[in-house]
């Protein structure tokens, strides 16, 4: 069994039209229209639309009855990622391996045809209330969601960041190793202002699917990860990282559309060249667009994080541009923590901070 990448990401949302319009207007996704039965295999009744950009496919689903799983999900978590779907070469083998590796079966493999294509679909448990849909495509369906979206600012889903309750990260790494043959490729521990978080990265063999797993250190003060877990109601996807070939232009374009970004802490750019040396994007440009930079032994990366517009402030989007770098901006984690802390403090009434 081989994982061929992320087939699509499904969001459960309360207001389908508003969610779709926001992603299209603000981030340049194209609305491919209502989901048609058979396009993704058998699914429970609901109202869905597909959004495309580059190889990124987002499936937005809203409940049309109180019994639809989206209704329960949104009630407990608000809008959010409900399924990270893997494209696989053999859905039956993938399903069997996942179950043997500890995943819980949600839907057994089933096949359907549509316009000369064949789609095999199964569903297994992931983390928290997030599932993994296993999708095998053949015939005309093979290319249905593989790079057919419109060209735009973003080409690929770089990674998904997942927040876990304290003490679950090692078991989750083992789960992805046993159920999906992911490798543990990176880990770090960050301390900022009395808070601490532990991060481990898992990735499939081809490097097409990358999850950054994050848990808080309970021996330190509660921080942003604890707040996510409390507001979201358990484990979930904190952010999706969208890769772009020109992050400076992407930030300018999104800013013109009204998207707001987290600001780098004071003094960040004056320390940048002494820390990293000359960069592919000049420091004055990075300062203008407020983009962060980091370097590893493979190359450079540039990243920026949107301010959350989620009703619970539990989801945001990262923009990332890679110049050979394979890691995730370790040198910027502290900067992100400080920026998130400043944003949250600004939203807290003064009386409650006294």
Give your account of this protein's structure:
The protein is α+β, with helices and mostly antiparallel strands and 354 residues long. The chain folds into two domains: 141 residues, 2,3-Dihydroxybiphenyl 1,2-Dioxygenase, domain 1 (Roll); 192 residues, 2,3-Dihydroxybiphenyl 1,2-Dioxygenase, domain 1, CATH 3.10.180. Helix content is 27%, strand content 36%. It has ten helices and 16 strands. The chain is globular and about 55 Å long.
Name the descriptors.
2,3-Dihydroxybiphenyl 1,2-Dioxygenase, domain 1, eight-stranded mixed sheet, 2 domains, 16 strands, 27% helix, 354 residues, 10 helices, alpha+beta
Shape: globular
User: Could you give me the name of the CATH homologous superfamily of the largest domain?
Assistant: 2,3-Dihydroxybiphenyl 1,2-Dioxygenase, domain 1
Q: How much beta, percentage-wise?
A: 35-45%
Largest sheet: 8 strands, mixed
Count structural domains.
2
User: How many DSSP-defined strands?
Assistant: 16
- The number of helical elements comes to 10
Strands in their spatial order, largest beta sheet: 2-3-4-1-5-8-7-6
Mean pLDDT over the residues: 89
Poorly predicted residue ranges: 37-42
Q: How far from one another are the termini? A: 57 Å
Helix content: 25-40%
- CATH topology value of the largest domain: 2,3-Dihydroxybiphenyl 1,2-Dioxygenase, domain 1
Q: What is the CATH C level class of the largest domain, in words?
A: Alpha Beta
- The CATH architecture designation of the largest domain is Roll
- Whole-angstrom Rg: 20 Å
The assembly state of the depicted protein chains is: single chain
Class per helix and strand makeup: alpha+beta
């Amino acid at each position: 069994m081989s994982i061929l990448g992320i087939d699509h990401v499904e969001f459960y949302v309360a207001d389908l039209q508003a969610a779709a319009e926001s992603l299209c207007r603000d981030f340049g996704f194209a609305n491919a229209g209502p989901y048609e039965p058979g396009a993704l295999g058998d699914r429970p009744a609901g109202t869905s639309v597909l959004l495309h950009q580059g190889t990124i496919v987002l499936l937005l689903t809203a409940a049309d009855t109180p019994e639809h799983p989206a209704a329960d999900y949104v009630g407990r978590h608000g809008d959010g990622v409900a399924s990270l779907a893997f494209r696989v070469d053999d859905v039956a083998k993938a399903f069997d391996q996942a179950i043997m590796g500890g995943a819980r079966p949600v839907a057994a493999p089933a096949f359907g045809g549509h316009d000369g294509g064949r789609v095999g679909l199964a569903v297994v448990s992931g983390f928290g209330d997030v599932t993994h849909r296993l999708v095998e495509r053949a015939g005309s369906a093979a290319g249905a969601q593989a790079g057919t979206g419109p060209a735009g600012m973003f080409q690929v889903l770089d990674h998904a960041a997942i927040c876990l309750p304290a003490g679950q990260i090692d078991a989750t790494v083992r789960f992805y190793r046993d159920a999906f043959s992911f490798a543990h490729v990176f880990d770090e521990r960050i301390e900022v202002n009395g808070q601490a978080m532990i991060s481990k990265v898992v990735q499939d063999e081809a490097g097409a699917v990358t999850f950054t797993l994050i848990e808080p250190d309970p021996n330190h003060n509660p921080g942003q990860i604890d707040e996510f877990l409390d507001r979201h109601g358990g484990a979930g996807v904190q952010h999706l990282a969208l890769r772009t070939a020109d992050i400076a232009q992407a930030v300018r374009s999104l800013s013109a559309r009204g998207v707001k970004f987290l600001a780098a802490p004071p003094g960040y750019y004056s320390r940048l060249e002494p820390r990293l040396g000359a960069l592919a994007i000049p420091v004055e440009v990075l300062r203008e667009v407020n983009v962060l930079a980091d370097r590893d032994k493979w190359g450079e990366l540039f990243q920026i994080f949107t301010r959350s517009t989620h009703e619970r402030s539990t989801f945001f989007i990262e923009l990332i541009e890679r110049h050979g770098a394979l890691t995730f901006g370790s040198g910027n984690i502290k900067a992100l923590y400080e920026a998130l802390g400043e944003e949250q403090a600004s939203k807290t009434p003064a009386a409650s901070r006294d």
